[in-house]
Amino acid sequence: MRVMWMRGSLTLRALGSLPAALGTVRRSMIDWVFRPQCAACGVPAVTLCAACSASLVELGPACPRCAEPTGEHAVTCRRCATSPLPLDRVIAPWRFGGQLASAIRRLKFANRAHIARDVAPLWAPVLAAAVAEQRAVVVPVPLHWRRRWRRGYDHAWLLARHACAFAEVAPPVSALRRVRHAPAQSTLPAGERVANVHGAFVAAPGAVAGRAIVLVDDVMTTGATLAAAARALRDAGAASVTALVLARATFARE
Length: 254
What we know:
The structure is a single chain. By secondary structure, the protein is of the alpha/beta class. The protein has one domain: Rossmann fold, CATH 3.40.50. The chain has 11 helices and 7 strands. Strands 1, 2, 3, 6 and 7 form a 5-stranded parallel beta sheet that branches. It has a two-stranded antiparallel ribbon with strand order 4-5. It is globular.
């Protein structure tokens, strides 16, 4: 009887430890599934792995108005000298290309919404400085509801939300609405992009009137999308509009 009792006690003890063992297995599986991954190539890493980080290129000397790279010295570019965008300035910490471009494409076109969180450390300090400079409101450039529905999320909103959280500033405000559905800018040549987004946005006056705005998007190429959004914000009474993008391109797709 003693042996049977001991066996029973052992069995009970084993059963008693089973939930804890299952909990450990479950946590291990969750940690593995949601382990930090390189935003560009997917290997285990935080933000970007060492190889992908090596491909990052800082913007360098650029036009102070539109952030167009200008070579050895930061000078006003020809376009901004004659026909400037309706933006007070454009801030871009990185050039578009390399593995950063891969990360942005995965976010926008490969259903990798988590990348918006993963890349937040790459530009959150820049966002924090831009907001603090004028006590600005962060406003993402929105997708049209049809494209947002097809994609499942709005990439610029996610980028802004996670960067704001990482920078410990107020969350973004949905002050812009895209009212006209049009082909994606990335499918069009540069000469057709201005007309494609003409009148595409409206802004809520109550959210932006008299306020400095930090307008957030992923990439700037021609600046047509940012310009259209900035015009809507200014029409609604925004005091100033500074554009902040993760990367600046000159001829790559926007």
